[in-house]
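Bumping my old thread because nobody answered last time. Still need a sequence for this structure:
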């Protein structure tokens, strides 16, 4: 929320990513940005998906520079969690 409160609406996603990276570093959190994660089907690699942030090895953050979240965004997040066997 700190990033959003400071920048407000209207920037491209990359601007929010850069600001969030600064805040994560200031907080001393380990993270990877735009991490390619492999997607498997039936044990076979079928592609990759790039997650905006992977924090402390256990939290995925997908940023959206939009006015309102829609069901498709929640479905996307849930699919990522299932694909990577994360809670």
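Sorry it took so long. Here it is:
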């Amino acid at each position: 929320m700190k990033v959003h409160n400071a920048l407000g609406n209207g920037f491209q996603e990359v601007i929010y990513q850069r600001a969030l990276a600064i805040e994560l570093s200031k907080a001393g959190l380990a993270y990877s940005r735009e991490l390619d994660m492999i997607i498997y089907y039936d044990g076979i690699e079928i592609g990759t998906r790039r997650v905006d942030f992977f924090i402390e090895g256990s939290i995925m953050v997908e940023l959206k520079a939009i006015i309102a979240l829609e069901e498709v965004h929640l479905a996307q997040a849930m699919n990522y969690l299932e694909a990577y066997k994360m809670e």
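The chain has one domain: 2-83. Let me know if any region looks off to you.
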